[in-house]
Amino acid sequence: MRRISIPLQYKNQIKSLCWSGDKLIDYVGGITTIDLEGTISQPQVSFTYRFDGAIASADGRYAVIFEYYGTKALLLRDRKIHRELNRSFYCADTYEYPIAFIDLGSGSPGIVHCPDDYNVIEIESAETGERLTKPGRKDVDFFQSRLTTSPKTRWLLSAGWIWHPLDSIMLYDLSHGFEDPRFYSGHGEGELGDLGLWEICNAVFLSDDHLLISGTGDQTQEDGSDESAVVVYDLTKREIISRKPITEPTGELMPIGDDVAVSFYQHPKILNYKTGKIEVRWDDIETDKRNSSISFHERKAIMAADFRQKRFAVLAPNSIEVVFLCP
To answer: How many domains does the chain divide into?
Structure first.
């Protein structure tokens, strides 16, 4: 592991962070490029709106800037506005904007989002806007949020919530195409069986077959206690591989090995999810206490996690702290 600090010239210089090869890009702050050697370019444009989040496609050609707890987003192509995007107003001020890029095959990127209803996911071409999901599909009463796809695009994961409120997950099987993905629920539908947690606060793919989740309580015991645990779940066998108690929430998770992941709750740390133990901490790097899609009171950190290259960047008061987890 190694770490570098990129000094900033003034406070609030950076508004968002996304990885693009070996550079970082601040799309919200005007498409500013940050070189890991420390060079920061001038903004190219001013987006006169309260955007505060950004994601980028794998090839870097497309990006979306959005308001985490609002209804508005912009799709950028080649760093220019391609079209505007929106989501339902319903409770939009309380939970994270549901949007992600997806590989449509042959290098063609798509967008997964909820342009019409809070509970209905749509998949469309980033380039043309053509909707690939068919209308009139069966829906579910679930607030979609924090969308991600598995490494080979077999599954689409939504880590959102159901009305209580209670954090949960929804999985969509994409193996037969994008037109009518079948959904599996952590609550209600029951197809996933026992996930080992009553409330699922965070979820991430370890592979197309395995899911890493964290949360509280015990599903089979209908135990809604505050005991925290981390679970590895086998999507093929529909069974728990391991369940370990942990002493603090995980927040967002980034897997970096067969038994470890970075946990971003309050400070970055390396969690061994097979033992539940923390192995490394960076207590001098502050993130925030987000542990749910409903975290509008907790969101403070601006950071970028790179799953493929196993590195992350966090905005500090006077610098960008970059940690490389591989030699």
So the answer is: 1
